[in-house]
């Protein structure tokens, strides 16, 4: 009992001792805290909610109450500090002392340059329009130049000057002079169409670029890269791009990405290319966005990501759609170099100069159809004709005066849109639209619908707009279909109906309208009215992006190729191929395959061509797929691989039904190359029908040729006496006799061939006999058989 009582006493004393120590420390910390009047440090949290952020679990120590969070933190600090303070004789580590704060230098007061107080110092603060300024400002100026007052009250004394030194003023004047020269040269470049004049203007632009003008440097660097009106110099272009990239030019960053991706002037590096493309895209360069969109879509140098591709393509498509005008913009001409070489008679869509001159001659003679056709060509450009609104207006005006409704409607569109040549005028546009619409022209009806939809020259009237759009759509006019889809999509004048909107957008897209593709892409991207499909949306947005203003580079590259400048054409096609143009990818591969370019060494041409054939084939180009099979079959740019060649040929034959691929597969089946030898697959069953069909085509062609040749007139003009001599009839009779003798001899030889007789039919089986008679019958049968053998042998010998 005494032992238990002493144990309890000891425990009680220990608990009281602990409580006493805690209370003493708490009192001491409170006194210390109240004794310090210094500033209190605050966290990012709200002070009112500070206690809620500190989560302390309640601790009960022998009935003692829980301390507050502030007390616990102070206790922990003291416990952390106490061991260090209590150790004697321990060397303390010398920590680097914090340097004293740098003394703030007094702000230099600038001396003004120019103005009304040249050479005097600024006065801060100064009063301007009842507002005090403590530094130079641009307020009150439209040119963005900094200025200050040299007295306190500018409003009263008007003493002021620019906050710049003499050196800064000189630099500013040089920059203003360079900008003025740049704008002058740029205006002349946009006006002139002669190549010699453009070359002279680019020489002037080079001098402006040497003064440090950023836009001039960008334009000159691209001209040197592509060989546009300047000698192609990729090395110097790269140096200019590197200098511009340091200054933050998104165009230069995109160009450097292209150089590293293609290995032009630098060692190829897809990692560096991706970095530069990303910086260019962040700077707002649309071409860089388009390249990144294609790379994410195809998994080129980056992991394949449809959503990332959608983000980049949608951003570019938004800008392209905003630039689309009522007249539709310029046309995009896509020409395959391979088709021109392998099929010389095929039409590439380009109009020959002689044909254009012929149409111009007809238009001058008053041919209305020729006038309207030439007007449309000059309005949109393309097919070898440059866009020229002035010529388009002249041709449309001539045809409209002759009463052509299409010309009236297109004049209305030109006035409604406006251009540098023709000022925008809603009233005049409305008059032309009404004239054309009253005569039933769908273009005029669509134009009237646009006027009522947006209130151009008339009050807004959705019912009339819907009525005119429906009339135009019923006649198959693409603008009417597009606007009907827009009204149904937004519920303008009608009940919102996504199915109807989808229907009309699809109809307009079949005619190739860029805004129809854009609207369909938006619907598939957001899942509006259709199931959401990232893949479909990306393909549609890609189609829109490829109709941007950069698509004009396709025609300049083609022109360079036709002029024999293969290197210039190749670099331009390479950039377009980076943007995802399948036509450019196949053209790059073709130029490399022909070994016409000199910027790459011979051992690089086939591997690079193989890369671009692969990219073009991935976008569905059949010939590129066959080329891939050829490259693997012959070992161009890669090792000989018959199995891979079979795969490519089979894809081209099964998915794209290529006759050439089927023939190649048949040959490989026959020889057993890369696949098991199979004669039946090598000779298809359809060869007879194909032969008969070809014979039929040959016969039809011959009959048509003879019909066009006018055989009667030819016979009447031929004099056989002069051609074959006076005894031509004897020659003819001799030839006929020889032919007749040949036929008779052939027939006699056929009759001399004796057909071997057929073996006699087997005798019917004899009826069953008694068992004792069977051996006799068998013996007789054997004798008959033996008797017939020699007779047959004699007959065979006689035969």
TrEMBL record:
CDD domains referenced in this protein's UniProt entry, alphabetically: FN2 (cd00062)
InterPro entries, alphabetized: FN_type2_dom (IPR000562), FN_type2_sf (IPR036943), Kringle-like (IPR013806), Sel1-like (IPR006597), Sel1_AlgK (IPR050767), TPR-like_helical_dom_sf (IPR011990)
Assigned GO CC terms: endoplasmic reticulum membrane
Biased composition (Pro residues): 756-773
Residue numbers spanned by region Disordered: 30-114, 755-799
Localisation per UniProt entry: Endoplasmic reticulum membrane
Membrane disposition: Single-pass type I membrane protein
Family the entry assigns: Belongs to the sel-1 family.
Record function comment: Plays a role in the endoplasmic reticulum quality control (ERQC) system also called ER-associated degradation (ERAD) involved in ubiquitin-dependent degradation of misfolded endoplasmic reticulum proteins. Enhances SYVN1 stability. Plays a role in LPL maturation and secretion. Required for normal differentiation of the pancreas epithelium, and for normal exocrine function and survival of pancreatic cells. May play a role in Notch signaling.
Name under which the protein is recorded: Protein sel-1 homolog 1
Species in which this protein is naturally found: Scophthalmus maximus (Turbot)
